[in-house]
Amino acid sequence: MLSPFDCALLRLLSFFSVGEFRLLLICIVSTLPTPTAIASAVAFQTEDESCTAEVVNVVFIDRSGQKIPVQGKVGDDVLHLAQRHGIDLEGACEASLACSTCHVYVSQDFVDKLPTPDEQEEDMLDMAPLLQENSRLGCQIILSKELEGAEFTLPKITRNFYVDGHVPKPH
């Protein structure tokens, strides 16, 4: 069974991972040296309730209106969660609050469950096209259990002045 430290390490690494498999491999290799222990840890990872209790299910609605359900962990931000799942949320400034390309609409039922945006986020949102009352920057939305079932809709456009046909890549 994974220790609380291992679960904390999994949560910490998930922010920087590209995918859950790579995250699991990194954690196991760094904490369990033998192949037998690795196989055991994989089985425990999928069954360990203390780690799965931190899962948050949310839905992204892309620009075509397609709903994409994903699982994140408490502490993940919406920008990196979207990128990890191949959702077209750009984040040109790499979450440094210097652009509005991770602009999303938060489903009305969950707007009040988020902290009030600070002045810097509001300044960046002022530059976002198609601003609405429920607009937020994905890099500033940190998943919590209260956001279970939240929907994040991508606006029809963002403003980043790159050429047509450019496909943004996760940073």
Automatic annotation (TrEMBL):
It is found in: Mitochondrion matrix. Its main location: mitochondrion. Residues 56-158 form the 2Fe-2S ferredoxin-type domain. Keywords: 2Fe-2S, Electron transport, Iron, Iron-sulfur, Metal-binding, Mitochondrion, Transport. GO terms for biological process: P450-containing electron transport chain. The keyword Transmembrane helix does not apply. It holds the Pfam family Fer2. Its cofactor is [2Fe-2S] cluster. It comes from the Eukaryota. GO terms for cellular component: mitochondrial matrix. InterPro entries: 2Fe-2S_ferredoxin-like_sf, 2Fe-2S_ferredoxin-type, Adrenodoxin-like, Adrenodoxin_Fe-S_BS, Beta-grasp_dom_sf. PROSITE patterns: 2FE2S_FER_2 (PS51085), ADX (PS00814). GO terms for molecular function: 2 iron, 2 sulfur cluster binding; electron transfer activity; metal ion binding. Electron donor, of the core iron-sulfur cluster (ISC) assembly complex, that acts to reduce the persulfide into sulfide during [2Fe-2S] clusters assembly on the scaffolding protein ISCU. The core iron-sulfur cluster (ISC) assembly complex is involved in the de novo synthesis of a [2Fe-2S] cluster, the first step of the mitochondrial iron-sulfur protein biogenesis. This process is initiated by the cysteine desulfurase complex (NFS1:LYRM4:NDUFAB1) that produces persulfide which is delivered on the scaffold protein ISCU in a FXN-dependent manner. Belongs to the adrenodoxin/putidaredoxin family. This is Ferredoxin-2, mitochondrial. It comes from Python bivittatus.
